[in-house]
Amino acid sequence: MRIMLAPMEGVTDFHMRRILTSVYRYDRCVTEFIRITNSLYPDRVFLKYCPELESGGMTDTGVPVYVQLLGTDHHCITLNAKRLVELGAPGIDLNFGCPAKTVNRHGGGSSLLRTPDRVIDIVAAVRDAIDPSVPVTAKIRLGFDNTDNLMQIATGIEAAGATELCVHARTRLDGYKPPAHWREVKQVREQLTIPVIVNGEIWTDCDAEMAQSDSDCFDLMLGRGALAMPDLACQIRSSLQGKSDGSNAAGKKPASGKKLAWPDVLELLEQLLQTAADLPVKYAGNRTKQWLCYLVREYAGARELFPEIKRLRDIDSIALQIRRHRNGLHTT
Predict the structure, then answer these.
(1) What is the span of the domain harbouring residue 109?
(2) 47 and 183 co-located in one domain
(3) In this predicted structure, what is the pLDDT of residue 81?
(4) Cα of 84 vs its chain's centroid, Å
(5) How many domains does the chain have?
(6) Can you tell me the distance from the alpha carbon of 279 to that of 284, in angstroms, rounded to the nearest whole number?
């Protein structure tokens, strides 16, 4: 089993990748998408999205970071993919799943799922243009507003030379509304010979087990669940490996690893806040608040802290409030 960290626009940037991979050494990270229009970007743009290019395309803990591209012009996507490989990107990921309205209005992301031939052409163009040793992966949804094109797209992506396919188990119409339809991914897994990764609505180790069982996929990609529980990947591996090695022989559910304690999560939250020092005051605390909103799902401490900082703007005030919260933990 491999566990990947999903690309999430405005969330899993360089700093968040560094923090989350310090908790668990994922098998792979993927950058936020770089939107390709009609030109070859200068290197500074690639380094902005993927500073790891300056260290062999790896995080501090040695996790490879694939660079994700989103666009509609296979020629321009190819030009940028070639340059990224020259800069040391360990893999190129192609985004055909973004549900954002702005992206879809311009024909990108999941809107391409309505035109399977264009998806296949983009994959084939990138695969043909770059070194065969560099993986080319794709991320799709089940479809745009239905699943009619799913198998044509999936088999076409494999035929075009993709190394792996990740399927977010919802359509664009579904958005992020539960449930994820993991069973729909099973037909893809059964037809393809390349690895298929299942993604979507995996919040717990039990969800991971069900996603594997329903989809018949061995590999998982975690998104929002990894934000709500920073050590979710540890929980999943502990639980599922316990079952696979026979520790459930007596009919008992194996105990997963102990969840990361709230004081330890606070340290991670403070690390993220420290990276905002160079941002405009208006936006400096937003990423920390955003992450805290996810943590509310799993941690009572997050539910206590969020009201205390949600109206604060500057990072010094937010940092002070977090320290007060931490001191309060030590006195209770």
Answers:
(1) 3-244
(2) yes
(3) 98
(4) 19
(5) 2
(6) 5
Radius of gyration of the chain, Cα coordinates, nearest whole angstrom? 20
Token digits of residue 224: 């929002």
Whichever domain contains 300, its CATH number is 1.20.225
Whole-number Å distance between alpha carbons of 260 and 116? 43
Q: Convert the pLDDT of each residue in 217-270 to its tens digit.
A: 999 999 999 999 999 999 999 998 766 654 433 333 334 457 899 999 999 999
Match 């509310």 to its residue by tokens.
296
| Any domain includes 164 | yes
Residue 182 in domain: yes
Burial class (CB in 10 A: 0-12, 13-18, 19+), 132: exposed
Can you give the length of the chain in residues? 332
Retrieve residue 306's tokens: 């969020």
Burial code (b: 16+ CB inside 10 Å, e: under 16) for 169-189 equals bbbbebeeeeebbbebbbebb
pLDDT in tens, 122-157: 999 999 999 999 999 999 999 999 999 999 999 999
What distance in Å separates the CA atoms of residue 102 and residue 104, rounded to the nearest whole number?
A: 5
Supply the residues annotated as catalytic. Answer: 98
